[in-house]
Amino acid sequence: MNIETIDTTVDFLKGKGFLSPEIGIVLGTGLGQLVSHINIEAEINYSDIPNFPVSTVEFHSGKLLFGTIENKKVVVMQGRFHLYEGYTLQEITFPIRVLNGLGITKLFISNAAGAINLNYKKGDLMLLDDHINLQGGSPLAFATVADFGDRFTDMCAPYDEDLNAKILAVAKENTITLHKGVYAAVVGPQLETRAEYRYLKVIGADAVGMSTVPEVIVANHLSLPVIAVSVLTDECDPDNLKPVNIPEIIAIAGKAEPKMITLFKTLIQKLD
After folding, report:
1. TM segments (predicted)?
2. E strands of the chain, at which residues?
């Protein structure tokens, strides 16, 4: 990866009308309905963007959108990239560097995750307060990373404390249950075994998923304030484990999405 590659992609998108977004939003599994609340001014398929990866997951749309929501300019990734698709961590996070190059000053991330904390239920939302990286690598582990920022990026508070406080207040105002917890990122695409779920609980995870952490690491590398919310789509009880039902997971994410939309829209409205 080099700065010139990012600049080429940024310049291309600016030429397509992606001008001066304030907020970047990454939409995860089953969380595409937010786009219906955006006054879209420009959109483009990932496959048409120079140097961009292409989503291979059937329930990720693979479009970049630009428009207005709550009087703020936003750029939205409708679909993201994962290690389990065969991409490198640098490729997965390339779009975050591009969004930063376009000018965003805040990054909102959503994902679907499994609840390790059995006090959390299907359809609940969890605000990420911290994370555990179990993906076996770092998006900052490449030779020229110092060209982009400090190689030894501090991660003592990876999620922006001010944004987290604001979204918790929004949840309370709207009587939305928003847990605060620790997200463990694994490679996937296979789901966890009973022993792995027990392990995740022992090490302090409240939820588990296959994304988000690389994006958050890069946001911190760029000094970009970031917030992330999980929709908890299944309960990972190792003593009562049933085979995974992907259509059910997508359906639960879809039912919970209006709460996510309320949180994100109201938070955007409250930002200066």
Report:
1. none
2. 23-27, 39-45, 63-69, 72-78, 106-115, 125-133, 178-185, 207-209, 226-235
Range of the domain at 165: 3-270
Q: How far apart are CA 114 and CA 25, in angstroms?
A: 21
- The number of beta carbons lying within 10 Å of the beta carbon of residue 189 is 11
What does the DSSP assignment read for 96-153?
A: HHHHHHHT-SEEEEEEEEEE-STTS-TT-EEEEEEEEE-SSS-TT-STTGGGTS-SS-
> Are the C-beta atoms of residues 61 and 79 closer than 8 Å to each other?
yes
Helix (H, G, I), strand (E, B) or coil at 62: coil
Tokens of 121: 């239920």
| 38-56 pLDDT tens trace | 999 999 999 999 999 876 6
CATH number at residue 75: 3.40.50.1580
Is 139 exposed, middle or buried (CB count within 10 Å of its CB: 0-12, 13-18, 19+)?
buried
Q: Is the pTM of this model over 0.90?
A: yes
- Give the number of other Cβ atoms within 10 Å of residue 271's Cβ: 14
User: What is the count of structural domains for the chain?
Assistant: 1
Cα–Cα distance measured from residue 5 to residue 2, given in angstroms and rounded to the nearest whole number: 6
The number of CA neighbours under 13 Å toward the Cβ of 76 is: 29
Within 10 A of 162 (CB to CB), how many other CB atoms are there? 11
Let me know the angle formed at the C-alpha of 49 by 62 and 187, rounded to the nearest 5 degrees: 50
Displacement of CA 6 from its chain's centroid (Å) = 20
Structure confidence by residue, pLDDT tens digits, 176-192: 999 999 999 999 999 99
In this structure, the strands spanning 63-69 and 72-78 are: antiparallel
